[in-house]
Amino acid sequence: MEGFDYVVLFLAIPVGLALADMAQGLSVAMRRRGEFTIGWLTPLLVLFILVLTSILLESFYEVRDIVGADAPVLFIGLVYTFAFYVAASFVFPESFEPGISLDDWFMEKRRYSLGVTSVLVLITFFLFLMGRSSSVATQPVVFAIVLAAFLLIFFLPIFLALRAKTKPGALIAMIGLNGLYLLAAASIVISR
Length: 192
Description:
The chain has 192 residues and is mainly alpha-helical.
């Protein structure tokens, strides 16, 4: 068993549980949709997390040749995927009470689901930049431009969705967020 395969074995468990938890929530919501309001915000959050998971898994696969199966890598990976699982567990309520609105649930719990996810996005981006530390050290202007572009293009919609005071504001931010991340995922596929 290669080091990368060993690491993936451990990291796949919390990621798989997180995705299964979201699938279960979506399944219950669809089966009982007449009892409460589904809305748009929670399904858009599910889409965002699925797209983000795809991007992160693809990025992790790209570094397979340099990932070792040592304790620091396993620990960091487990903390990261554990946080991902906790964030995904807040996408849907634990129980669906009659009359609730999933848009209200999103507005109330987004700091846990979207907030933790945004921290993971930032950590991933900074690890990506640190992996290119030689080019960062020799080209600080390029580093500053890449950092500013990332924060503006990919993190601003997350920030706006987290800070939106109204559901329509959060909806606009989530649509923009999903659009940008879908474009990023498509550009990864096209660039191959």
